[in-house]
User: Fold these one by one.
Assistant:
Number 1:
Amino acid sequence: MIKNIYLQSLILAIFIFLSGIMFGIWIDNYRLSAIRQNLLSDTVFWDDSLFLSKYSQFFGQDFCDKALNLNLLFNEKIYKRGIEIENAVLANKFAPEMREELKKYTLMQAQFWLNSIDLKKKCNFTYHTVVHLQMLNPPTPQDVVDNKAQANIMLKLKEECGNKIMLIPLYADLNLTTIDAILVNYNVKKLPAVIIDEQYVFQGLTPIEELMKIVKC
Amino acid sequence: MDLLSIIYLIIIFVVLYYTSFQLNLFLKFKGKVREKAKIGKLPKVSLIVPAYNEEKTIVRTIKNLLRLNYPKNKLEIIVVDDGSKDKTYEKAKKFEKFGVKVFTKPNGGKANALNFGLKHAKNELVGVVDCDTILEKDALIKCVNYFNNPKVACVTSRILQRRKKRILERWQDIELKIIAYTRKLAQFLNLITATPGPLSLYRKNVLIKLKGFDEKCVLEDNEIAWRLIFNGYEIKMAYDAKAYTNMPSKLKEFWRQRVRWGIGGLQIIKKYFSTFLRNHPIGTYILPSSIIGYIFSTIGIGLFFYLLLSSLIEKILYFVKTIWYGGNPFIFSLSIQPDLFLFYGLILFSLSFFFVIYVLHGYKKTNIIDLITFIFVYLAFFPIIASYSIYKFLRLYKQLKIRPIWLTK
């Protein structure tokens, strides 16, 4: 009877422990499939926005305005999605594929950046493209603080400027060839970094006043 | 998965094992907790009251013992004044006319006073009663009947808190009630590892055979329980025998007492370390769980402070830098992502919480704020106390001379 209690307790502990692992796997996979589903619907939205931007060069100002509105909506949507995926990736334990979804999202943001540049030129819009290069896993505690503080500053900038800027956050530490090429092209040595209108590059934690000297809202 | 998560998982598995063990004991024996021992012939008992500077409580304690519901011709009360600097001895001496035997000796510590009392005790059962304890009238009768079983060498009682004015006293009141219940459950596997001073009874011949209380051990009442189990004796608990004591009411006293207990626990671990994982209840369960308790408390508190401090520093720096660089630190997104740790946390918390509620259900209503603060504030002291005790123990290592016990069986 006594030995039974020790053994039964061990079996019960293993059962609860494995249930926890199963729960962990289930919840991570659930989040992964939810992210995949959302990204799929974002892709449709994205294609819609992209085509409208492309067509606008042939069909005039009316299409330009529609494309701008759609891009702004997409910008807002994908910004929130980024935060959602980042939180899921940081909580993730059992679904390494989730990091791949973040890569997909980052590439979609990069495409969105190019599309915003394109649309601005074709339709003579005056909005600023503001690219925020950030880290998913900052290597040092100081980087963690700078990364978060810069994200907050960018959020405030967006609040202040509204539709006058297209805020595009990109994760720069995901080993993506495109993003690495952007870093080389703009000679970015320190993260977080901000690129405004493809000309002005700010490296490290940058105050909002510095950014607002370029982005006049 | 990162290293921190793996450490957490290991800790969680061990905690789950101990929780499952308690749950199993609870489910199997909860019906037997309140069972009483069959009343038989009352044996002769000697109660030893060790006293050191107890002039404020000695009179009340002796009066309480004289009023016990136990045949006077079968009860011997021995007060051992351990070289008090106050009037303990003089006050106790006044009770000699009521048959109380009062001795005085140079100060030698509680265990030494108990061994002194043991030498003068005439009866087959010897009880230890702390000087700040008040026993319920029937407490002794309820204990002695367990000795009808010849394998039983010790019977302990349910220790409860007397003063409940301050929050610290009320927290300890809850703690004592939970300890009493878990101790009673442990009895069914002969795993009682403490025979506390407020009221515990022993067979005198067994104590003499085992050479009395260990005078070098800070926690002589726990050590004797380990030694009894080590030597194959059984310890029972009379759940219905209540002894009321005053636990510390000030944080400083509380801290000192618990660190002393912590050091005492480590002394005992050191003494019985050779039995580790040997085929014996001490080696297979009691010793490993004590060691795990200390190690996990230390790791737990280390991790806790590391995470707390790093998070605090990070938040302060974030706040300052965000303001300095023109951001708004009050903009933040709250995100709770359920994961396996949340699952384990909820399971462990629910099981422990319902157990506590069940135990407290048998008493007068407990204040909900006391209960919540007990869980989230009071219990948080223990890893800190355990870690500090380890530090103190290592510092005092050479002074705390304990001869290791060797498993010969």
Note: Chain A has two domains: 1-125, 126-217.
Number 2:
Amino acid sequence: MSVVKLQNLSFRYLRRKNPALKNISLSIEKGTTVAIMGPAGAGKSTLVKALIGVVPHIDPGHLDGDVIVDGLNTRDHSVPDMARHVSLVLENPDVQIFSLTVKDDVAFGPANLGMPPDEIWARVAYAMQETQLVGLDDRNPNNLSGGEQQGLAIAGALAMKPHVLAMDEPVAMIDPVGKDRVMSIVERITKGDTQTTTIITESGTDIEALAGKVDQVVALHQGEVVLDGPAREALADPMLEEIGVGHPQVTDLFLKLQDAGVKSTYIPINLDDAVEMLSRLLAEVGVNQIALPPDYGGLTERNFGKPIVRVQNLHHTYPPDVHALRGVDLTIHAGEIVGIIGQNGSGKTTMARHLVGLLKPSNRDAVVQVMGRNVTKVRFRQIIKMINYVFQNPDDQIFADTVWEEIAFAPEMMGFSEEETKQMVEEALETFNLKGYEKRYTMSLPEDLKTYLAIACVFPLKPEILVIDEPTTGLDMKGEKIMMHSLETLRDAGHTIVIITHNMKTVARHCDRVIVMGEGQILLEGTPRELFAQPGRLLEAKIRPPQITQLGQRLNDIGFPPNVLTVDEMTDVVLYNLRRNRG
Amino acid sequence: MTKMMVVASVVIMSGLWLDPRYQAVLFLLAFIPVYVSKIPLYWFSVVALAVVTSTYPVAVTSLGQTNVGLYKVLDPTWATTSVVGTDIPFVGKLGITYGGLMWLLNAELRSTIMATYMFVFIYTTSVAEVTDTLLALKVPQPAVFVISIAYKLIPSFSRVVEHILSAQRLRGWSLRHWNPVIIVRRAAPLMKPLMRRVAIMTEQITMTTQIRGFGSGKVTATRKLTFTKLDYALMAIAILATITAVVLTAFFNVGQL
């Protein structure tokens, strides 16, 4: 039975020229999990907002066609009325949490629906059970981990007992273990007694987290449905690659093997299936023990310059008594790309803010040295020429009318001449792929270009070290490639890049060194190859290696290396062994 | 309810008084709730921003004030006497008066006091508690809805201000300049992203509250209001202090300049 029906749905936001959704017809069955996939700007968020009537009742625009959820046409019902049937969880849990305790927050929705108190608390108990929040009843939501906060947002939605639960990129902002937690909640509520239909949007970065849990995949591109089918077929469809979403890493591996002439009975979309299929493939040709290709892992070790950042015994306490950093010791070398990873709230951003002088250590004996100078004693305008920091949200800094003016702002503020400013802006445009956009109105830029612009804005100050918070968040596969290519170009030109990220694929592919933080301390550090080979220790920091690395680890008993970093590496290992045994 | 009454009392008194000496008492008392609530200091970046941005317009209207009719308590001659001044051809005498200085100091203290008490209240009270209290006070549902949205917005607003300030400082931005016209122009990198973020946040919070069913009809209060002896005592003090202040100000010019 269809619980969601979209009939020729088109939608154009007010004062926008192009429609966000074009003639979409879809049918979603009860008790299924559906992934709405597409690159940035494809119309995914608009689509899920249409399910509860946010579009057009709160976000106005011109809507054609019908959205029928649980038998109700969203045209005829307000958002609060639809909330009894369908709920929406957003990417950022912060805007969805309203109370000072977990249980009060879960109760907020049912209380708004005017339910009797007994029913409210019964629903709170049910929702907290489903989302594994039992025992956290009186905790302040601000003190929960990212995964737990998103779990709380889902609990708040579940307490409304919706038949349809829509989620807009629910795992984008949380750590790998948090992502698994959220997806296991989704699996439980969909397959459990309530048979809640869940609809999740995804731009590709976290496709592995969803792949094994969804039944149906709908791909959008420029507001149109370009793919709709069962997950097993759709996730291996070349269309996902074409529109910039990509495939799960294990699917990508088998597609690459297929291109190389290795046939498998089906293309796996999750880790368990991939382990089984790869074991079978190798056994069929008599490979019992894996041999490594001669050039395996040879290209990733790099030599770096002298230490450029030195941190010793750094403590930081936020009032009243939140110990965000507990004695951090850290060295960063010139010319490396360093990834800082860790659970939400592990101290990554706090540590990075000390490097640029935005925060001062809480202890007097702390050392924070950049390029041999103590940042606590250097004037801020000097610091930002040595090291700079780019915030995660470009909207925090963009203000000028045009891209050119935005980039020219920093050199103008620092007193550079008109000629020097012009030269600096040209260079930044070139480096960050913004050539041709100089005169574009900044607010009309798509999200990926806004992210490039945010970095380009500090680039003219020529900082030796650039710290970037979540540079790939909100970017699709293509956007991520462009971004990381730009950063690698900077690294190759001698700059040192520090990125704070939850994206383990980015870390594996692009970082020279990784620092793992947990509870305000540095738990582990090393090259991605060294680190990702220690899944047990990473798990303590709520981190999981990329899916392709996990595949090697699951097959470690037949000799697969535990430190495969990319799909290409794994493809080489598999092909080398298949060809060797086939002669 | 108790916190609401205490804050309302302080806001009324601070709003009534024009004499910075009276405001100073409320200002000093504000340190107690700030210390007890352990409110993060970065929240006060908004207070600083409000005080700095309001200084200029308040200063323009107050500093050179020479209207003797404005002063009911202070000696008008002293209040309108220039601390510093100069004669400008065709324009006349321009200067800063003692009364004007007190007026300005009062306005700045008032902004700081009101924002501080409001922030302590917001930091220690959830949306659900505010909603329950307003419902108990029989405030109409649409008003409760609007207050709840505004209420949720303020803590996020402080964080956004801090982020934007930091992001722009990292690009070499600074408000400091000798030329007031340039200072005003330099507010753009701060105000434009701020306005945009506030609009986005307002939209998001409006959306999320409605998604959680707010506005669908009668809301159930999840807690019953209960009062301790301390609550009764504080509420009584707040009411008494407010009435006394209003009477003394209206009939005896207490707290006026």
Note: The first strand of chain B starts at residue 82 and ends at 88.
Number 3:
Amino acid sequence: MIMPSAESLSSRHLIGIEGLSPAEIGLLLDLSDRYVDFNRSANKKGDALRGRTIINVFFENSTRTRTSFELAGKRLGADVINISPEVSSVRKGETLLDTALTLDAMHADLLVVRHPESGAVGLISQKVRCSVVNGGDGAHEHPTQALLDALAIRRRKGKLSGLIVAICGDILHSRVARSNMILLRTMGAEVRLVAPRTLLPAEVERYGVTVHSNLSEGLKDADIVMMLRLQQERMRGSFVPSTTEYFRFFGLDSQKLAMAKPDALIMHPGPMNRGVEIDSDVADDINRSLIQEQVEMGVAVRMACLDLLTRDLTGNEGPAE
Amino acid sequence: MKRMFFQNARVLDPASNLDVVGGLLVENGKIADLGPNLRDPPPDAEVLDCKGLCLSPGLVDIRVHLCEPGEEHKETIDGLSASAAKGGITTLVGLPNTEPPIDDAAVVEFVARRAREVRGVKIFVYGAATKGFDGKRLTEMGLLKEAGARAFTDGNIAIADAMMMRRVLSYASGFDALVIQHPEEPTLTASAVATEGEFATRLGLSAAPAAAEVMMVERDIRLVEMTGARYHAAHISTAAAVDKIAEAKSRGLNVSADTAPAYFALNETEILQYRTFSKLSPPLRSEDDRRSIVEALKAGTIDVIASDHWPQDQESKRLPFAQANPGAVGVETLLPVCLELVHKGEIELLTLLGKLTINPAKLLGLSGGSLKKGGPADIVVFDIDRPFKVDSDKLNSKSKNSAFDGRPVQGMVMVTMVDGRIVYDGRITE
């Protein structure tokens, strides 16, 4: 597919993959490619964001994503601060916005926000002058994860269009699945979901994906097998009977993987539950597993996002409304 | 194994709508041949002259309380098998309410092993839908199904919580597994021992409205619509529930239902002397409801008749009505009580037999239930006209709690065969 080229993003926020054009996704991935090379060089210090202030506001625990954003900002020369507001005190919408407005008033240029409630990051973006990047909101979106996944796939397979991607596991609670479905469908990949029916949201077929209850069937001829974590901390009540049964029917092992294409690659957004959704033999197979590469791509993708989003910012003058 | 030839039988096969006088040849545990042209026995075969008696597929009874493991003082697998064989049953499916419950693959395997040892009728089980029937935690349906569980149910406990029932249906549908509900709104039936109405009032018994049944059925149908699951309502006993099931079927939902003989052969007047053998779950209903169950069987809304066999020892029944355990034994009276509908001209013989053979077999994916070449030789020979009085003391079952004791019936099982083995022989030596 020939993409019309884009030179910048149409919004100063990145709240979701939803709304991004194929050209914008292409632009982000192309720039990310350059940052992959940059990160592999000895001198990893740039100055594209010199003088900028980035605040990582994580209302939900994270090591991987927060570190990745922090490294991305620092490698571009920005000043980066991390704050983790007490989760219990910000459940009320007002306090959430107060926190955001306070940071905005300190002339932050960009906020990276993760929040356990869907829509919370979008809500902040409507009230502040700075740019806002969604680091994951509830079960809504996790756009930089989908971009880094796309980058990892594109670098190995040379394309996204026409690939068969199976996304397996806890779709219901997953923002990663939602962002990935949108991105992959936007870029012309075929997407299959494989999950116990209790972990599939209603009418998920409307994303243009097919749904399977049998892992071997869903993996047939797949190019990419994307495993998701069973998010037991988000489950109220019984969605699956046991991790034993889950692994038996929905866990990826070499036998089920044999249904996929011989050169199929395995992905996982982390953190992994070995023996629950993925067998260690498969997760650690250096010829098949993209899991470590995903982490590397994460920094590059976040650098590209920060870079593009702050390019046209003139600075945040005067107090916020 | 030697060949066996059933000669001069009225061969009845609901699956193929066959009702002819003819023969049937059994070879290596399978049906080798059958039909009206099969008159003379092959030279080497043992001949069983049926003298015009009915020969049909063995009955498939899909609702039986096993009692073993856990309540062997009420019934054992041996006793159950002997009792079922005498009733013309060749395959039965046990509920998971044993002790320990069948919510773990190991218990499925235990029952399968016991059935193999006994080598009588074929015995399968259901798996529990929730662990320990707690209505909160899903069971390992995938593993249970692999071990042999035929469907999922919490036995005589309704899966009450709507969210949980939704998850049970939804999770089961991923494994293409059937969910069987005991349809009863438990907050209405909590302490009830009878159906609400004049009789219960006069007896001073705590009672629940008959509508408790349709309330659960109606809710479940909405959840079935939401999840696309396969749903079966057990022992349907009220007109209102029948209507809802008929409506769901007409909308193309994957819904089926069974009833037990008590609900078309008895009504609530049975409990007038505080007769605890007539204390059932669900409780006996009004005459209008009983009548509607007969009509639903005719109309095909109710697909299956199952015995709902539930042995109770004397200690569990010789009690004040409210304190007695519910349930009645039923495998040995299943066929004659069902045949009353035929003798009264309510229903065609083949239609009735269909509800006892091919329909339940199809519902649960069981191999018997029909007479076809190459199929298992699971067969019952019965004398449709022979009258007798139900005598609970003569039942093979360890427990004698029949709700039909003393009832004059017509239709006696003569021979029951499972995989070519005769497991019951009631022919009088002349």
Note: The first helix of chain B runs from residue 77 to 86.
